[in-house]
């Protein structure tokens, strides 16, 4: 059986040396073709580029899984996918001083050892490292870290209730840490705890970012500003 890497190499070589696509590395690194179905392009070179991107993504996922980083990758991809369309600089992973960051404006994850993820299509000007530094210093009061089981059950129950009572106008599912304590988007919290299930969670005020500390890295999550 021909390996994925061999098929990738053949297609890559054809596109660069036969079709003259000199910026293929840049397109693949920036994830321009990520998620594009090769069968739904106009065929020809476009289909081959999309196939090349899909093969590259498959190899990336297998490599991250082999290194035990599958859950971290899953969480970071969820954040990248949720980045607003108008914020191109957040649509990928950023490396600063050897650490890798992803952010969608509501939550962010930083890991100590970078994994293979696409980079943003444009340079990031957002001071993401500064926000981590500020949260790390200010968030000193502990919060109880929910178990993944409790959090998943809560989300499933609320989704079922919302579907029955409100249909498509269902509200965002919240996770309340307690009276006079922060409330956050439960799905966003689940993504972070998928990456760092035993993270230590701290906060400063009910309106300030929550800070998650873990041996693999850290994260921040914006709470709801409830009246």
Structure commentary:
- With 227 residues, this protein is an alpha+beta fold.
- The chain has two domains: 4-66, no CATH class; 68-227, DNA Polymerase III, Chain A, domain 2.
- Helix content is 42%, strand content 16%.
- The protein contains seven helices and nine strands; from the N terminus they run H-H-H-H-E-E-E-H-E-H-E-E-H-E-E-E.
- The chain has a seven-stranded antiparallel beta sheet, with helices on both faces.
- Strand 1 and strand 2 (99-103) form a beta hairpin.
- The protein is elongated, with a radius of gyration of 20 Å.
- The termini are far apart.
- The model has no long low-confidence stretch (mean pLDDT 85).
């Amino acid at each position: 059986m021909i390996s994925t890497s061999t098929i990738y190499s053949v297609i890559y070589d054809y596109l660069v040396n036969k079709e003259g696509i000199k910026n293929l590395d840049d397109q693949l690194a920036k994830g321009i073709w990520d998620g594009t179905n090769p069968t739904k392009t106009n065929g020809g070179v476009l289909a081959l580029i999309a196939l090349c991107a899909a093969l590259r993504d498959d190899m990336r996922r297998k490599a991250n899984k082999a290194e035990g980083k599958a859950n971290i990758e899953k969480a970071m991809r969820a954040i990248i996918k949720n980045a607003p369309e108008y914020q191109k600089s957040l649509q990928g992973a950023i490396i600063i001083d050897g650490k890798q960051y992803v952010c969608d404006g509501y939550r962010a994850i930083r890991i100590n050892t970078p994994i293979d993820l696409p980079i943003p299509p444009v340079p990031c000007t957002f001071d993401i490292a500064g926000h981590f530094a500020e949260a790390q210093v200010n968030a000193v009061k502990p919060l109880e870290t929910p178990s993944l089981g409790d959090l998943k059950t809560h989300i499933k129950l609320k989704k079922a209730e919302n579907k029955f009572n409100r249909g498509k106008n269902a509200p965002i599912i919240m996770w309340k840490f307690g009276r006079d304590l922060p409330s956050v988007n439960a799905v966003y919290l689940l993504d972070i705890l998928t990456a760092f299930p035993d993270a230590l969670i701290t906060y400063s005020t009910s309106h300030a970012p929550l800070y998650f500390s873990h041996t693999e890295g850290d994260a921040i999550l914006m709470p709801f500003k409830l009246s």
